[in-house]
Design goal:
The protein has 443 residues and is mainly α. It contains 21 helices and no strands. 67% of the residues lie in helices and 0% in strands.
Length: 443
């Protein structure tokens, strides 16, 4: 009798997460914020119950697969980035370099192509060069071979699911290596944010995380060349991984750093050779520069500075604040890398989490899927703020709601970051004490 009673909350929590994922994946546009946040809250509550349940690992792993398969035929509603993914793939298929041409420069040549016109009309980056590195580009290419938008979406989704399954097993491997509770894995595997933004919206963080964790696992076993190769593959999936080079090089010291660099740098150069040359390398830099100086979404420190700019100077300071915050972010990342350079192998996950969050907190653009990387890294630490952020960052979709006024949107942003920073403060209390830094164990 007791067993049956205990199964009731597990059953309902499973139903909640399935319904929440389905509704967001197929039914609720991002402009319908009340429905969107309600469905997400139900799904996250389901995760919270399941994470504390006694359900077997096999069943929870199977549920994660089911939730991802549930989204196989969905067309992303929350993000329109997939238009650019498939556009880049079609360009390669037709012999064009996506780093060489803006979509607006080529659309005339494809004016009689239905799929090109469909992708172009849905794209939000018609006047920008591509910023997606080679590994993503090849996955875009294979997905575009279907010559169908839905076919391309489904193909790319299978790739992402494959990498997510790989990530599940490498997380499990690292948790076992450091004798950590395997229950931590469910904050990744069953997290609605992870499922919706990776499998659902097809973002490349799913590929990056897999290769980065493989790199870190190899570094922990002193396999520096192999670690360098996987780190290079992570960079080739998404450029975010470049942010971790300083701490990994500082921890490794020169005699190990050489192997790391020997594995990573030649691979990165060789992979970029078919795409980049001296003339179009500047195109990539231009797009990255425009991205950080022209766009803003869900920033924390940036939005405070923006408010101050309007109050004091009466103009938008994005073009000034963006570069300044980038410099401050870089300096803080180097400082954090230096402070953690001799900490033990497990503590490096805390350092990597903090480093990436420094970048996010000072960035004008923090899309929900950006926090999946530090969420995954935080699973190997005792910090809880990233789990909280994975629950609150969906509030940022309120920015797309046409029926919400500015004050409500600002309040949602305030709630999101207030919760995150309060828990972060508790997590970091005492982490940077002089005594702890002095007694850190060499990698």
């Amino acid at each position: 009798m007791d067993t049956k009673v205990n199964q009731i909350p597990v059953f309902f929590s499973t139903i909640l997460i399935c319904i929440g994922i389905y509704l967001i994946g197929y039914q609720i546009p991002r402009s319908s914020f009340p429905l969107l946040i309600s469905a997400f809250s139900f799904a996250f509550f389901g995760l919270f119950i399941l994470q504390k349940s006694n359900v077997t690992e096999k069943k929870l792993f199977g549920l994660g697969i089911i939730l991802r398969v549930l989204l196989i035929f969905s067309v992303p509603i929350l993000s329109d980035d997939y238009f650019r993914f498939l556009w880049d793939g079609l360009l390669i298929q037709n012999g064009f370099n996506p780093f060489e041409y803006k979509p607006s420069e080529l659309i005339v040549q494809f004016q009689n192509s239905k799929i090109h016109n469909e992708l172009y009309s849905g794209m939000n980056s018609q006047h920008y060069y591509s910023i997606y590195p080679p590994i993503n580009q090849w996955f875009f290419f294979f997905s575009a071979l279907t010559d169908s938008v839905l076919g391309g979406i489904i193909t790319l989704r299978f790739f992402i699911i494959g990498f997510e399954i790989g990530t599940y097993f490498i997380i499990k491997k690292i948790l076992k290596r450091y004798s950590l509770s395997l229950n931590r894995i469910w904050w990744y595997w069953l997290n609605p944010l992870v499922i919706l933004e990776l499998t659902g919206n097809l973002h490349g963080e799913g590929i990056l995380i897999f290769f980065l964790l493989l790199a870190l696992y190899n570094f922990s076993k002193l396999k520096d060349f192999n670690g360098g190769l996987f780190l290079g593959l992570s960079v080739l999936s998404k450029l975010f991984s470049l942010i971790f080079f300083p701490i990994l090089l500082l921890k490794s010291r020169w005699y190990r750093s050489k192997k790391l660099l020997l594995g990573a740098i030649p691979l990165i150069i060789i992979a970029f050779l078919p795409f980049l040359n001296w003339s179009n390398f500047n195109h990539l830099l231009q797009s990255l520069d425009l991205y950080f100086q022209s766009f803003e979404f869900n920033g924390s420190v940036f939005n405070i500075l923006k408010w101050v700019g309007y109050q004091v100077f009466n103009f938008d300071i994005i073009k000034i604040a963006g570069p300044v915050l980038s410099i401050i972010s870089f300096l803080l990342i180097i400082l954090t890398s230096w402070l953690f350079r001799f900490r033990n192998r497990l503590v490096i996950f805390k350092a990597l989490t903090i480093i990436f969050c420094i970048y996010l907190f000072l960035s004008p653009i923090v899309h929900p899927w950006y926090c999946i990387l530090p969420l995954t890294l935080s699973l190997f630490t005792n910090m809880k703020f990233m789990i909280a952020w994975s629950a609150t960052i969906f509030l940022s979709y309120g920015m797309y709601a046409s029926d919400l006024n500015y004050n409500i949107k600002t309040s949602l942003l305030f709630i999101e970051y207030l919760i995150v920073f309060v828990i972060l403060f508790k997590d970091l209390k005492g982490s940077f004490s002089i005594q702890k830094i002095k007694t850190g164990i060499r990698f």
